[in-house]
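The record is passed on directly below:
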Amino acid sequence: MGQPTHARKQTDWWRSAVIYQVYVRSFADGDGDGTGDLAGVRAKLPYLAELGVDALWFTPWYLSPMKDGGYDVADYRAIDPAFGTLAEAEKLISEARELGIRTIVDVVPNHVSDQHPWFRAALAAPPGSPERELFHFRSGRGERGELPPNDWPSQFVGSTEPVWTRLPDGDWYLHLFTPEQPDLNWDHPAVRQEHEDILRFWFERGVAGVRIDSAALLAKDPALPDLVEGQDPHPFVDRDELHDVYRSWRSVADVHDGVFVGEVWLPDPERFARYLRPDELHTAFNFSFLSCPWDAGRLRESIDTTLAEHAPVGAPPTWVLCNHDVTRTVTRYGRADTGFDFAAKAFGTPTDLAVGTRRARAAALLSLALPGAVYVYQGEELGLPEADIPLDRIEDPMHFRSGGTDPGRDGCRVPLPWAADAPYAGFGSCDEPWLPQPAGWPAYAVDRQQGDPFSMLTLYREAIRLRPAFGDAPLTWLPAPEGVLAFTRADGATCVVNLAATPAELPAHTELLLSSGPLDEAGRLPQDTAAWLRA
């Protein structure tokens, strides 16, 4: 039946890995203070090993004021006390590796926290000082400098807030996200040197890879001109000089046999592929597939485009259904609009969780059958829906910077349920979790799903265990009726997904390896169901 994924020996492990995203704050609370921590993760390593994943990607665990969920880093060489200590992180990395699980950490090179020593020194220094050259400080426009230096928009979709903040001394500083996240000046050699040192720091502690947040935003036009839509080059997105940064980073990674995955949101496939050239990043997230509606034609187009844009540079594609920034898959697939768009997020959007769950199960088999690496966001393997967070408990700055119209991202970040009958569904033993869990959360608990052969958790475990059957072979599409996706890979391993309204006949096969739901009485594949076959 195949070896567990985490037991496979593979030099280029990252090319076909199953990588589990850990949002530490919401994974498991080891000390009972209501916040997830490294002790909680360490205690759950056997669970992750049994799931069969190859690596864990940790969202930022560094010292941070948590103004943006840890993506406002004050010190990359210290673990935030809410999560634990550096010594604990080192133990976690080592203990996971003993179980065959690698560790990927997150870096946020576009900006730092306003509590970072560099920015505190810049605020204490006068205009024009060397300390301010590490950031983007400028005089304002207008007769008295009362207007921002340019008209750039916030990178929080829907935000009406400016990206410049004025100081009492008259200078303005740039922050594409929140005022608590000042943008670094990547033309400054000290900024480049510091980040290469940070990479070395973590590679030397045993991490196998680094995920790069907002990877296309670092470089800015030194003149900081106004934004002219459609003008090339863009003043702060996907600038050519950025590739020199990643070539230098690649030389650091290669010394340590480390890998990079970039968060690169770009509509141009050719521009996207440049980041994946052999001397730059190893992989990048595939947001086309993540945001794609539950539609056979659209999904096939996304898959074909993704494979085509990666082929010229020899990079493996990545597949992801959900992460810590987007609506949970079960909820999204149960809506009338099954795609994802930050600009379309709104309170009170109705969903059919039964339909969404059926589709999410099928999508899990689809994504895990495709060539390349797969990312699984914590809780997806439990079929968790998006939670409705009470207004007085919302913490996400995206909500506040939208003027309260965007529900924010907290709904996909609710602490996980581990034990149905324990306080707070087993997340922690003492204090209330930092985000409230919905009333129905215990029904999704790990201990409820462990022994259930039809649970989402069992499906994910089986799919990850059987995934090696597809091998490293490319994808070949098979003839299929409208609304049905069918493809084969190594040794006749075949995936069929029925998105049509009527049951679909399965192609000839010798074995049904796995299905996301039962076949009908005639052995056909029902609507919104996927099956893995051996020809």
